[in-house]
From TrEMBL:
Any matching Pfam family: Fucose_iso_N2
Domain named L-fucose isomerase C-terminal: residues: 331-467
Lineage, opening ranks: Bacteria, Bacillati, Actinomycetota, Actinomycetes, Pseudonocardiales
Gene3D superfamilies in UniProt: 3.40.50.1070, L-fucose Isomerase, Chain A, domain 2, L-fucose/L-arabinose isomerase, C-terminal
Keywords: Carbohydrate metabolism, Cytoplasm, Fucose metabolism, Isomerase, Manganese, Metal-binding
Gene Ontology molecular-function annotations: isomerase activity
Keyword Metal-binding assigned: yes
Keyword Cytoplasm: yes
L-fucose isomerase N-terminal-1 domain: residues covered: 2-133
Organism: Saccharopolyspora gregorii
Protein name: FucIase
Length: 471
């Protein structure tokens, strides 16, 4: 799950350290075992830190193992300046952990070290407990998971197909800020390359994919105009083209502008975006690739972090409508919902059995298929990185996706755009708060409650957390 460094800090007096060494090792072994049992890879310092030279050398050795987070462990009273030297020798996030065994002053050592780090402005988090306590391992694991997600951004490349869509300022970020704050490079790719590649893509694979979709989907509703087998294959060839570009340019995540050039003159990118975000296609299981519609940069950045935390596909949607009488949000937009969300099954056939491919609507004269379904119910973490006066904030909340009987579902979708995918969400935030403060028209979601890890992500990125709950 994550790679965690563990360094135990001791007393600098030789005779005290000699007395305490076995006790420290016993506690450290228990902590390492608990973290390993939780699924993490642990890199323990080769020696206990009992002098200033070891503080630096042991920390450098652990850092060289490319750990996601470094635990500085306090089982006894520990000289605080050892912590300061160790902290300076690593760039990874720090978690100060104290043993709560009352026979030794481990808490005292952690507090003295933490106060010293506070004085120099070195960010860190603190935890305490028995070394074999599963809650302690989970607390450390949250920080490590967050650190792995944050670390995965550095050195990554975002592929932006096209520029700003339809004057949408929230879809465009400052590339210098991305490089400075997150370590992400942005590769600009003209949409014309996508068109050229799609025209040359393997026709046999496109036909195979179309037949696979026809075989497994709830329906492919050809109308002879906006959706034909030829148009669906054009969309599939677009997917093949984008995958080739992703591989050639080593893109870690991407976004496609789409509107208006492609949607007016070529085809919608619904099929491309849905299957890029899916963990499978007609060739079998594959890695998900975050792709944001309308080349939404901050949306894609949010999705990439959510993906690293949850290890699932990530939902992308417009905040389309608030049904105040039900306290339900209709999260709906063209294309972006991965088909996985229809049933959230490892079996693509189970998901696709709930997915319809409808002719696109009047917004998109070039035509193609929209990828329509109603997202399966369950607990969701929702949110987005947005900017206020140029500074990032993570807007975060918990919610539930709901699903209803067939008549109710039909009545709800027909109030907006029935041909598009929908997720009916009950948010743990009042409607007036959300509408007054949310900083974009796009929102993102993953199954489960991942707020603890995302709070840690916000802290490690140095962005403001804007978390909403009722009451």
């Amino acid at each position: 799950m994550a790679r965690i460094g563990v360094i135990s800090i001791s007393d600098g007096r030789d005779h005290v350290h000699a007395r305490n060494a076995d006790f420290i090792r016993l506690k450290q072994d228990g902590l390492v075992a608990a973290l390993t049992a939780a699924g993490h890879e642990v890199v323990a310092g080769r020696e206990l830190v009992a002098d200033n030279v070891l503080a630096t050398t042991v920390a450098r050795e652990v850092a060289a193992a490319d750990v996601d987070v470094t635990v500085l462990y306090y089982a006894v009273w520990s000289f605080p300046h050892f912590t300061m030297l160790a902290a300076d020798a690593t760039r990874s996030p720090l978690v100060l952990v104290a043993s709560t065994d009352p026979t030794e002053p481990g808490l005292v050592g952690m507090l003295a070290a933490g106060g010293a780090l506070d004085q120099i402005g070195r960010e860190h988090t603190r935890a305490w407990g028995a070394p074999d306590d599963p809650e302690l391992a989970a607390t450390i694991g949250v920080q490590a998971t967050a650190a792995a997600a944050v670390g995965s951004l550095r050195g990554s490349t975002f592929g932006r197909f096209g520029g700003r869509p339809m004057g949408m300022n929230t879809a465009v970020a400052n590339t210098d800020q991305w490089q400075r704050q997150f370590g992400i490079d942005v590769e600009e790719i003209d949409q014309y390359e996508l068109v050229l590649r799609a025209e040359k893509a393997d026709a046999a694979e496109a036909r195979k994919a179309r037949e696979w979709i026809e075989r497994h989907a709830a329906g492919v509703h050809y109308d002879g105009a906006k959706l034909t087998p030829e148009l669906l294959e054009r969309q599939i060839r677009s997917y093949i083209a984008v995958r080739e570009i992703i591989a050639e340019r080593h893109l870690d995540f991407s976004g496609i502008k789409g509107q208006p050039e492609l949607t007016e003159n070529f085809a919608t990118m619904d099929v491309t975006e849905a299957f890029l975000n899916d963990p499978y296609d007609w060739n079998g299981p594959k890695d998900t690739h975050v792709c944001a519609t309308e080349a939404d940069m901050d949306g894609a950045l949010t999705m990439q972090l959510f993906k690293q935390i949850a290890r699932t596909p990530v939902l992308f949607a417009d905040v389309r409508h608030y049904h105040a009488d039900r306290d339900i949000w209709d999260l709906c937009n063209s294309g972006q919902h991965a088909t996985w969300y229809a049933a959230r099954s490892d079996d693509p056939a189970e998901n696709l059995a709930k997915v319809n491919f409808y002719p696109e609507v009047f917004f998109f004269p070039a035509g193609g298929a929209s990828v329509q379904h109603i997202a399966a119910p369950g607990q969701m973490t929702l949110g987005r990185l947005t900017r206020e006066a140029g500074e990032y904030r993570l807007q975060l909340m918990l919610g539930e996706f709901e699903n209803y009987d067939e008549d109710t579902n039909r009545a709800l979708v027909e109030q907006s755009t029935p041909e598009w995918p929908h997720a009916f969400a009950r948010l743990d935030a009042p409607g007036e708060v959300f509408l007054s403060r949310f900083g974009a028209n796009h929102v993102h979601a993953v199954p489960g409650d991942h707020r603890a890890a995302l709070r840690a992500v916000a802290g490690q990125l140095g962005v403001r957390l804007d978390e909403w709950t009722r009451g």
